[in-house]
């Protein structure tokens, strides 16, 4: 009954896209029950399971869809997106290439191909895919930003004229302007035009912050709730808790968490789970709080009554990427959950990455995070970013009291300048033997699906240390806010010699 199956599929996708995901999934499953050879229905089921963070199920369904040998571009692209979200970028590239072959004039297919190629470190191929996307649709704004991030621009080779031409057009919506101004800021910074770069960020971010209606009070409440709920020191883990598989790397975004993850996952005993949201999603599901946010005050409050040991077991089962004995989860926001982790997985290793405050704030402000990920809304404003950093700093100090001796704090600047000694201490904390390959992380062929995808393919260098000095005048609000909240904006960071 292909016609009836397709009708159910259409209705299911519409329902899911309108926010009625459970209804949508039920209709899509009905479509598959009527016609098990409907590859598009399998692909769409995988798509929405992936959106619900049910990664293993989503990949299994995507595999079934592939097994039906689809030839249409939309189905192949949908399967590629599911595989990409699961970190299987090599296989995703194969799907995207087949999709592009089936429909060469669809800009989004080339963009998705370029993104997976970037995650794999194939930067020249990625650039060609992004340029093809823009040839087809010059207003595919995300491709402008992605292209700017791929390489360091030069006076002889950059895209500034094109970017400024688009910015001069009337009627740009807020997201289009934000994408273009971020791209322009990156290229201006590459050319040493720091004041012009900062102005582009300020204009685009200001408009976006107004559009989001963000208030820092929302994030302040999260920090304060966590510290109140975990007010007393937690007991040492009992000897029976022998599962040391996970290593949690946390910290403010853009402060070196990906670098630390790449060092660890270069070890023969360690794989990478990427930036997994599994822990937060499992807690959210178990609490069954009504809000659409995974992390909120009500969920944190109700989580204190959960069987966190069961949450830990489920987390391991869902998150372990392969058969290696250890794995890294580098979701930065897991710093909110360190108390939960200590209870759910008492033998897990905890690593907190720190960075000089002004460089940390600047790196967050100059980063264009996912536009639909509300947890980084603070980064649309300089003072909000400074407030967030100060609360993060306060929370880390709180965890040091509550989890004495359990966390290993690593300073980005020291890691860059004295990489051997800092890597040795990191491995010792994680219970890992020394391996030279951890100092050669840039050779690690595994995909990198974070904003640091380009940087961590390069050897360590100190080029990002002290970047804030180029923007010191513009960062005055950050300096004043940090000082007002008790944070020294320019602390001395003791570093040794580079190894």
Give an overview of the whole structure.
The model has no long low-confidence stretch (mean pLDDT 93). The chain is mainly alpha-helical and 499 residues long. 56% of the residues lie in helices and 5% in strands. It has helices at residues 2-17, 21-34, 39-51, 55-67, 73-85, 89-102, 107-119, 123-136, 141-150, 160-167, 174-190, 194-212, 216-229, 257-265, 278-287, 297-303, 308-319, 338-344, 357-365, 382-402, 412-417, 419-429, 476-484, and strands at residues 246-251, 270-272, 326-329, 349-354, 407-411. It folds into two domains: 1-114, Serine Threonine Protein Phosphatase 5, Tetratricopeptide repeat; 217-462, P-loop containing nucleotide triphosphate hydrolases (Rossmann fold, 3-Layer(aba) Sandwich), CATH 3.40.50. A five-stranded parallel beta sheet has the order 2-3-1-4-5, sandwiched between helices. It starts with a helix and ends in a 15-residue tail after the last helix. 45% of the residues are buried.
Physical arrangement of strands within the biggest beta sheet:
2-3-1-4-5
Give the name of the CATH architecture of the largest domain.
3-Layer(aba) Sandwich
How confident is the prediction overall: mean pLDDT?
93
Report the order of strands and helices. HHHHHHHHHHHHHEHEHHHEHEHHEHHH
By oligomeric state, this entry counts as single chain
User: Tally of extended strands?
Assistant: 5
Q: What is the CA-atom radius of gyration, in angstroms?
A: 23 Å
Fraction of residues in helices? 55-70%
Envelope shape: globular
Main sheet summary: 5 strands, parallel
CATH homologous superfamily (4th level) name of the largest domain: P-loop containing nucleotide triphosphate hydrolases
Low-confidence stretches: none
């Amino acid at each position: 009954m292909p016609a009836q199956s397709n009708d159910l599929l259409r209705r299911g996708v519409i329902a899911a896209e309108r926010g009625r995901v459970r209804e949508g999934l039920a209709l899509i499953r009905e479509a598959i029950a009527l016609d098990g050879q409907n590859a598009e229905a399998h692909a769409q089921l995988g798509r929405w399971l992936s959106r619900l963070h049910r990664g293993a199920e989503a990949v299994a369904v995507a595999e079934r869809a592939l097994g039906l040998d689809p030839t249409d571009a939309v189905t192949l692209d949908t399967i590629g997106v599911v595989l990409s979200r699961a970190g299987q970028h090599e296989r995703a590239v194969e799907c995207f290439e087949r999709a592009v072959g089936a429909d060469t004039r669809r800009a989004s297919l080339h963009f998705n191909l370029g993104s997976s190629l970037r995650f794999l470190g194939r930067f020249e191929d990625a650039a060609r895919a992004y340029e093809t996307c823009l040839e087809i649709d010059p207003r595919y704004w995300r491709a402008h930003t992605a292209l700017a991030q791929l390489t360091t621009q030069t006076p002889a080779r950059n895209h500034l004229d094109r970017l400024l031409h688009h910015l001069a057009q009337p009627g740009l919506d807020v997201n289009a302007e934000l994408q273009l101004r971020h791209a322009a800021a990156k290229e201006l910074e590459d050319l040493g035009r720091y004041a012009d770069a900062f102005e582009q960020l300020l204009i685009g971010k200001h408009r976006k912050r107004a559009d989001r209606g963000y208030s820092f009070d929302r994030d302040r409440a999260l920090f304060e709730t966590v510290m109140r709920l975990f007010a007393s020191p937690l007991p040492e883990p009992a000897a029976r808790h022998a599962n040391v598989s996970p290593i949690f790397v946390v910290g403010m975004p853009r402060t070196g968490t990906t670098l630390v993850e790449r060092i660890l996952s270069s070890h023969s005993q360690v794989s990478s789970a990427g930036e997994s949201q599994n822990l937060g999603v499992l807690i959210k599901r178990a609490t069954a709080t009504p809000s659409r946010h995974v992390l909120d005050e009500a969920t944190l409050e109700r989580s204190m009554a959960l069987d966190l040991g069961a949450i830990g077991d489920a987390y391991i089962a869902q998150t372990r990427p392969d058969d290696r004995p250890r794995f890294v989860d580098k979701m930065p926001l897991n710093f909110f959950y360190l108390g939960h982790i200590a209870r759910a997985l008492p033998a897990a290793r905890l690593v907190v990455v720190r960075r000089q405050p002004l460089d940390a704030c600047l790196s967050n402000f100059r980063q264009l995070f996912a536009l639909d990920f509300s947890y980084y809304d603070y980064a649309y404003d300089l003072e909000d970013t400074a407030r967030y950093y100060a609360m993060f700093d306060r929370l880390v100090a709180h965890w040091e009291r509550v989890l004495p001796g359990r966390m290993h704090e690593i300073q980005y600047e020291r890691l860059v300048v004295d990489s051997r000694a800092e890597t040795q201490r990191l491995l010792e904390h994680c219970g890992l033997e020394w391996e030279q390959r951890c100092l050669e992380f840039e050779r690690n062929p595994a995909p990198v699906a974070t904003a640091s995808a380009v940087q961590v393919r390069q050897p360590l260098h100190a080029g990002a240390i002290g970047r804030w000095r180029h923007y010191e005048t513009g960062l005055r609000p950050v300096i004043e806010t940090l000082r007002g909240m008790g944070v020294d904006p320019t602390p001395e960071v003791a570093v040794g010699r580079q190894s």
